[in-house]
Amino acid sequence: MGSPGAPLLSVIIPCYNEQRNLEHGALNEVWDYLTQQSYSWEVLVVDDGSTDDSRSLVRDLVGSAAGFALYEIPHGTKPAAIHEGIRRAQGEIVLLTDMDQSTPIDQLELLLPWYDKGFEVVIGSRGLTREGFSIVRRAGSVAFRLLRGAFLLRDIRDTQCGFKLFRRDVIVRLFPRLQFFQRKPGASPIKGWKVTAYDVELLHLCRQAGYRIKEVPVAWRNRDLSDTKGQQGELARYVRESLDMAGQVLRVTLNQVRGLYRDL
């Protein structure tokens, strides 16, 4: 748990080329909500080597927003940014959320009661009727769920929602165990904001370790204005991301068969 005087809640927000979302006021929404709460909190924004004006925009807000902090790391994609936030977090519980606030921060009110009931992991679930979700993305989501459910976490509908709450000691213990962090020395540098299925492996690790997971429906509307996905067409991105994520699900399944998660 956190040290004496530590906040109850740590909110971790990874940031990579989020200038447009920041200019639209996404981080201000987080500030407006949290300052109305009675519990103590901190917000850790981790910039993953942005190439736009994201860092300066966050610095401007952090300079006048008590409880907000900015940390900067060399580019390593979303899991690396989250890991830095986890290392820095002091709260009893940790919320992972996306800068675009497609799931608004106020949906935390739906997750916290389940944490109070003893669930170590409480995750948001977007359902299939997602406002602003293109037909291509909706079809891809269904296909991914069917593939993933054939091997892992059959009882969870949505593993990929970026709105997840963890007891801090759980995520501190398990996040570094992700295969993402087992990259070999000298591996090629990571470029762009690579979409991964690390969520699947993380939830699988939580399940294997005996932690209780509660899935809670949350509001979701596509509000992402960022350029993190590059300039490829949507269909091309969908095909590339789907193949990569399918490969990662199969890798987690093979890791399970090989017994790599036995010592959890």
DSSP summary, beta strand count = 7
Shape: globular
Instruction: Give, in spatial order, the strands making up the sheet with the most strands.
Output: 3-2-1-4-6-5-7
Low-confidence stretches: none
The main β sheet shows up as:
7 strands, mixed
Report the end-to-end length measured between terminal Cα atoms.
19 Å
**Average pLDDT for all residues:** 86
CATH fourth-tier homologous superfamily: Spore Coat Polysaccharide Biosynthesis Protein SpsA, Chain A
Radius of gyration: 18 Å
Q: How many structural domains can be distinguished in the coordinates?
A: 1
SSE pattern, N- to C-terminal:
EHHEHEHEHEHEHHEH
Total DSSP helices:
9
CATH class: Alpha Beta
CATH level-two architecture: Alpha-Beta Complex
Helix/strand class: alpha/beta
β-strand percent reads 5-15%
Can you tell me the CATH topology? Answer: Spore Coat Polysaccharide Biosynthesis Protein SpsA, Chain A
Helix content range of the residues, please?
A: 25-40%
Describe this structure in words.
Strands 3-2-1-4-6-5-7 form a 7-stranded mixed β-sheet, sandwiched between helices. Strand 2, helix 3 and strand 3 (68-72) form a beta-alpha-beta unit. The chain is of the alpha/beta class. It contains 9 helices and 7 strands; from the N terminus they run E-H-H-E-H-E-H-E-H-E-H-E-H-H-E-H. It has helices at residues 19-23, 26-34, 54-62, 78-88, 108-116, 135-151, 168-174, 198-208, 234-257, and strands spanning 9-15, 41-47, 68-72, 93-96, 121-125, 164-167, 213-217. It has a single domain (9-257), classed as Alpha-Beta Complex (Spore Coat Polysaccharide Biosynthesis Protein SpsA, Chain A). Helix 6 runs parallel beside helix 9.
